[in-house]
Amino acid sequence: MTPTVSSPAAASLPDDGAAALSGSGRPRRLVIVGGVAGGMSCAARARRLSEEAEIIVLDRGRHVSFANCGLPYYVGGEIEDQEDLLVQTPERLRAWLNLDVRTGHDVVGIDPEAQEVIVRTADGVQRLDYDALVLSPGAQATRPPVDGLDSPRVATLRSVEDAARLREWADAGARSAVVLGAGFIGVEAAEVLAKRGIATTIVEYAEHVLPPLEREHAYPITQELRGLGVDVRTGTAAESITHGADADEVRLADGTGVRADLIVLATGVRPDTDAFASSGLELERGAIVVDEHGRTNLPHVYAVGDATVATDPVTGARRPVPLAGPANRAGRLVADFIMDPDHARPIPAPLGTAIVRVGGMTAAMTGANRAALDAAGIEYTTIHLHPNQHAGYFPGASQLHLSVNFTPDGRILGAQCVGRDGVDKRIDVLATAIRAGLGVADLIDLDLAYAPPFGQAKDPVNLAGMLGANVLNGTVEVWDVRDLERVRQTHLLLDVRTRAEVARGMVPGALNIPHTELRARIEEVRQAAAGRPIGVICRVGMRANIAHRILAGNGLKSSVLTGGMITLRSWLGDDADSYLVGA
Predict the structure, then answer these.
(1) Do residues 167 and 103 share a domain?
(2) pLDDT greater than 60 at residue 359
(3) Is residue 146 part of a domain?
(4) How far apart, in Å, do the first and last CA atoms of the chain sit?
(5) 3-state DSSP call for residue 32?
(6) SS (H, E, C) 270-310
(7) Which residues are catalytic?
(8) What is the pLDDT of residue 86?
(9) Side by side, which strands form the sheet with 262-265?
(10) For residue 20, is pLDDT > 70?
(11) Domain tally, the chain
């Protein structure tokens, strides 16, 4: 049970002086709750701005500064030495920055009137006063209501100890694993376990892995997981875990069961703020409400990182963003405000830019996806492209699958990309473009590095700008794969691929006329359309764009399936072969 601020068991920690501000107006004692990304970046920046302040970092764990994003790769063995996960130690932090880092100190409450934190240590519950307090408690794994989740074979992947435990089990000869949740951590865990030769099943309640990804982008990741030997179960969830002597059995809602020597719980996270609920701290769905400088509703109390509420700069939605990058940057900016408020910049609303490796594939995203835009009622267009990541004539060229969402006036709202190489570069450019307020047509003018091994003279980002500009100025009209059934009912579908291509599958009821024959057969199209608009399909969209201009030039109304059959096949996923028909 969490002690209240008036707990009579609370004693005082050694105090070097009354809480006060220094002559410069800076706090004499800055207390930071939680290390890792947000807390440690705040502490380090505060020290660089003030040599006089006493800076104390309290963390309940053994490790205050570790590479939490590297934990799966330690389990898999790519990071061989556990010490490589430790970014800094308390001893180094004292020697380098004169920080008083106290591990094994669990903050269980705040007394805002006394300006004290209540700390549970091995020596009992104690109090520590502060002039300024920064809360960086992070997030904790959610625990779904699954019978048997208390099995000793269940582990999370949130700490160095978690990673060490999973690696020990793998080293000891675990033969089977179940990963509950196919978000970023779950997919990374499944990848590294499968690469170790462990028969791995990943279970996700949503309809596809990596739920923030669009459905058509998630399917290549599903296929990559399968190629690694992972059994992917989506649209279902664990109902119970039966403990056994040699292994557990995970029973799923679809009626099946899966054997597991180890179980990774990766069903999501929630803000770790239970200790502060009774302090008067304003919380929104468990997350700490802060302003643009990290200030909470309590005087002299700030918060950063995974446990804070952020406002989505695209949709306006309010939610935590549990990512290391935003937490690091917020920690630095809060330290700036505490130590030098007149020159501090506000904390920017995070776009949620994220990336993950799965086998030989990479998936990345920035800004809002279609579901978020739909929920916010924002009008938008989505375009899909499938260009090579570098010059096609240079060895090693591979295809990117890129989508961009933008408003009717061209404002970029979000982007996603999947591929084997060059994904990070494109998403980083697009994240920068969104932050800078560029429109989709502005992407045409970006002067990006080019040489055959690295890109194309028309980079995929430039190409996205060209297609987006064509949509904005009416040179091309597009329709989305999500509208397939509606378009089938209201349009003539015209597939302009070659006969050999359509023999391998085309949309039922479509008319096939290769784009090179279209001019000569335009009257055939006119008769088949019988006054209906025409939905044009090709492999990636390029030939369909040409056909669209031919049709428009002949007075026929048409639009192009953005991304073509590659996008459509990924959207249909495992149902593609049964849905599509041969010519």
Answers:
(1) no
(2) yes
(3) no
(4) 68
(5) strand
(6) EECCHHHHHHCCCEECCEECCCCCCECCCCCEEECHHHECE
(7) 69
(8) 82
(9) 154-155, 262-265, 176-180, 199-204, 231-234
(10) no
(11) 4
Residue 25 has what pLDDT?
A: 73
| DSSP E strand stretches across 104-205 | 106-111, 116-121, 124-129, 132-135, 139-141, 154-155, 176-180, 199-204
Work out the angle at residue 571's Cα, subtended by the Cα atoms of residues 490 and 269, and round it to the nearest 5 degrees.
130
Same domain (yes/no): 230, 136: no
Domain assignment of residue 553, yes or no: yes
pLDDT in tens, 373-398: 999 999 999 999 999 999 999 999 99
> Which structure tokens are listed for 176?
């089977």
Look at residues 486, 511, 507 and name the one whose alpha carbon lies nearest to residue 579.
507
CA–CA gap between residue 372 and residue 356 (Å, rounded): 20
Position 99 scores a pLDDT of 95
Angle between helices 522-529 and 542-553 (to 10 degrees): 80
Neighbours of 97 (CB within 10 A): 17
Supply the pLDDT for residue 583.
Answer: 57
**117: nearest Cα among 271, 275, 270:** 275
561, 564, 566, 569 alpha-carbon torsion, rounded to 10°: 40
Is pLDDT of 536 > 80?
yes
| 50 neighbors 342 (Cβ within 8 angstroms) | no
Q: Last residue of some domain: 243, 267, 291?
A: 267
* CB distance 261 to 175 below 8 Å: yes
Per DSSP, which regions of 427-553 are E strands? 478-479, 492-495, 511-512, 534-537
Q: How far apart are CA 119 and CA 125, in angstroms?
A: 6
How far is Cα 397 from Cα 452, in angstroms, rounded to an integer? 9
What is the tens place of the pLDDT at every residue in 175-220? Answer: 999 999 999 999 999 999 999 999 999 999 999 999 999 999 999 9
Residues sharing a CB contact under 8 Å with residue 2, sequence separation 6 or more, in sequence order: 108, 109, 274, 275, 277, 278
> Which one of 237, 267, 297 terminates a domain?
267
Res 8 pLDDT > 50: no
Residue 175 lies in a domain: yes
pLDDT tens sequence across 96-115: 999 999 999 999 999 999 99
How many other C-beta atoms lie within 10 A of the C-beta of residue 398?
A: 14
What is the domain-level CATH number for residue 246? 3.50.50.60
CB 362 within 8 Å of CB 354: no
Model confidence over 295-319: pLDDT tens digits? 999 999 999 999 999 999 999 999 9
> Which residues span the domain enclosing 566?
478-579
Residue 63: the pLDDT is: 84
DSSP tally for the chain: helices H, then strands E: 16, 35
Asked if residue 550 and residue 482 are part of one domain, the reply reads yes
pLDDT band, residue 14 (cuts 50/70/90):
very low
Look at the block and give the residue holding tokens 């054997």: 259
Per-residue pLDDT, 24 = 58
Residue type, 221: I
Yes or no: say if 180 and 265 are a contact pair by the CB < 8 Å rule: yes
Tallying the residues shown for the chain, one arrives at 583
Query: 6 pLDDT band (50/70/90 cuts)?
Result: very low
